[in-house]
């Protein structure tokens, strides 16, 4: 299925139909310093699952392990429905290039979201509205310029040197929208869950070498919920708990402007500092 | 490699050597209401990786997707090293029984943990010491009786009915040790990261039908760090952010008594309420 909106994000995450093997390609528009933006890779994999003829239900959980760099160009997605029952599906996807080794390994769970007791104990992160904040300036990584980041707290200051005597806060609160507005869907939630700047950049105030190793996102809204929110941006928070022996963590939340928790995410990332 | 300590946990998570296919078996000592305790399953898979002749480095991240019930008895573990480089390994493991479909699908990342800038922004959860607290009483699920749970906050009260007008707190702080003390290692951290009672039990105060669907744990200590801590218990906290349309999340931390964050964990679980 080709993109229907003409949005760069849909172009960047486009896949061509297959049965067990799908095809995609990296996008110059969503490029990080040494490879494609991990969020775009994750969203492309999720798109292949969403568009798969055997898909049933809505995304519940997705884990993406970034095993090796992805070179610019085409890639293959080996998509496998590992197990299905009446209410859920378990998928495994391997991304390869040129018949070579696996560059990205992902698992995903889809589920029928049936009505239930509902409770949202997490507090909505209050803050200045989107319209009252300035967009974060453009940077050299093209992917970041596809997003409109508006920081409420924890505006990046990458002027530091490592090691510092006093680490800075790793916490950020910010609005994230596509720079060209695009309605929030499962694909953009998946991508935005990897769209936080590295926590180690915030904590050290320096752009040290960095790479996400494993990313897990849980979806707390289904398609009906997202349709009801009808928004083009999320209020997002991210923080870290520890940086130790070359790896640090991140945990984050993506909220609708109305105060619904749409997704939670966690990742562990390599850094050199 | 056979268990050397004679501890029930080592017996329950025992695997027999293979190359790509390993064998394990469920344990009556770590049984939940409708299948094996998910933490024991996760630890058994991790043990197969730890003991694998090609394993290099220390566990960094593990995701376990519980696809289908596991019947009492033997199971096979198809263990595959998906990608390796000088500093990390990516594994994929499928648990099957009797040549049937996949019951559990796991991915794991191992890494060389090199010295780096270190910072632990997460606050150590203060509380009464282990010795001053009473063990939680035994319950019908055998797995829980293998652990010595001592609640600092959020002692379970499962006397409620669903739906309630006022949900209770989903937060817990507790010490977790093996009931027969056993030194904390990667395997027990993996298992303990699934040893919290379901958050929905706390929030609804009722033992509703419940099952973990996907569990992700990050390890923030390597073997040297654990050896230095030299402890048989962790101080653990867990909380939930949302329960919605039959699924709820959990996030948790496992701390050494000295104040080192050993592991962080998150999961999404099915519930009926």
From TrEMBL, chains A, B:
Q: The organism sits in which domain of life?
A: Bacteria
Q: Where is the Acyl-CoA thioesterase-like N-terminal HotDog domain positioned along the sequence?
A: 29-111
Q: What name appears for this protein in its UniProt entry?
A: Thioesterase family protein
Ranges for domain Acyl-CoA thioesterase-like C-terminal come to 130-270
């Amino acid at each position: 299925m080709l993109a229907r909106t003409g949005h760069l994000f849909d172009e960047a995450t486009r896949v061509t139909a297959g049965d067990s093997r799908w095809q995609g390609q990296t996008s110059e528009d969503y490029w990080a310093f040494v490879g494609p933006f991990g969020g775009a890779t994750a969203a492309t994999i999720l798109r292949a699952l969403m568009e798969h003829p055997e898909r049933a239900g809505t995304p519940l959980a997705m884990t993406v392990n970034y095993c090796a760099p992805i070179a610019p160009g085409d890639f293959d997605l080996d998509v496998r429905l590992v197990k299905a029952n009446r209410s859920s599906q378990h998928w495994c996807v391997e991304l390869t290039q040129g018949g070579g080794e696996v560059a990205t390994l992902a698992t995903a769970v889809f589920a029928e979201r049936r009505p239930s007791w509902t409770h949202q104990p997490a507090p909505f992160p209050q803050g200045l509205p989107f319209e009252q904040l300035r967009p974060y300036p453009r940077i050299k990584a093209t992917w970041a310029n596809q997003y409109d980041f508006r920081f409420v707290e924890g505006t990046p200051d990458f002027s530091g040197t490592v090691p510092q005597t006093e680490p800075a806060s790793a916490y950020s609160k910010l609005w994230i929208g596509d720079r060209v507005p695009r309605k929030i869907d499962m694909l953009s939630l998946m991508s935005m869950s990897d769209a936080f700047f590295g926590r180690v950049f915030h904590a050290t105030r320096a752009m040290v070498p960095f790479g996400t190793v494993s990313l897990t996102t849980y979806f707390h809204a289904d398609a009906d919920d997202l349709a009801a929110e009808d928004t083009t941006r999320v209020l997002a928070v991210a923080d870290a708990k520890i940086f130790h022996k070359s790896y640090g963590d991140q945990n984050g939340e993506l909220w609708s402007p109305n105060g619904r928790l749409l997704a939670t995410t966690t990742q562990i990332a390599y850094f050199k500092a």
